[in-house]
Design a protein that fits this description.
Elements: E1 3-7, H1 11-23, E2 27-31, H2 34-44, E3 48-51, H3 60-69, E4 78-82, H4 87-96, E5 100-103, H5 108-118
Helix pairs in contact: 2-3
């Protein structure tokens, strides 16, 4: 079973997304901050990561850089899920190695299509 890690400081988003992804047949792990998210990613080696940008302690840009600098997670696709819609945010995520970028609130079916692009 493919595993998806959700890193977002909003527990409601983590839980809602977890339930929807589990119904679609994925194993889902959640982390409520960037530090925990990096630790879980290194331990669990998920097939895909959904990552928020605006989080306390360690923001999504920092998490993304750490994941892409580590050999264990370098090739793991990361889809950014964020309320930040500026072109600067999109560009920075691309430069840090994000696979895709979704703006909250997002269309659930569209997100599933993108996930399936990375986890066939």
């Amino acid at each position: 079973m493919d595993t998806i890690l959700i890193i977002d400081d909003d527990p409601e988003i983590v839980e809602f997304t977890r339930k929807r992804l589990e119904k679609s047949g994925y194993r889902v792990i959640g982390a409520l901050d960037g530090t925990a998210g990096v630790a879980i990613a290194l331990k669990e080696k998920p097939d895909l990561i959904l990552l928020d940008i605006m989080m306390p302690l360690k923001d999504g840009y920092t998490v993304l850089r750490e994941l892409k600098e580590n050999g264990a997670t370098r090739d793991t696709p990361v889809i950014m899920l964020t309320a930040k819609s500026g072109s600067g945010s999109v560009l920075e995520c691309q430069e840090c190695g994000a696979a895709d970028y979704f703006i909250k609130p997002f269309d659930w079916e569209e997100l599933l299509r993108y996930i399936k692009k990375y986890i066939p």
